[in-house]
Design a protein that fits this description.
Length: 101
């Protein structure tokens, strides 16, 4: 699925979704429970944000048994630049990653 320009601002308007993208950029692949722990939020809310990100083409998922792992989807250069910018100035991705530990 390709990223569409129209929903970009809708998707990125939410701080939790920006944090999820930044974490996935740093960590590579995480399950809902890991994202929930890192963001100190409940699983249903994280799952809802992941569904929005997945429908918009920002994240992809893979199932392993009963677990679903999320990662950044294949995206065009502009999408990669947006995600990289989240970690550089918009969201302290490395700091979010360390908060998991």
């Amino acid at each position: 699925m390709m990223l569409a320009m129209k929903p970009v601002f809708d998707v990125l308007s939410d701080a939790s979704r920006r944090h999820i993208l930044a974490l996935l950029a740093v960590e590579g692949e995480l399950c809902v429970c890991e994202l929930g722990a890192a963001l100190d939020d409940i699983q249903p809310k994280i799952s809802r944000h992941l569904a929005i990100l997945r429908e918009a083409g920002w994240v992809a998922a893979r199932r392993e048994g009963s677990w679903i792992f999320y990662r950044l989807a294949t995206m065009p250069t502009w999408g990669k630049q947006v995600v990289a910018a989240l970690g550089q100035g918009g969201v302290p991705a490395a700091e979010l990653s360390q908060s998991q530990q």
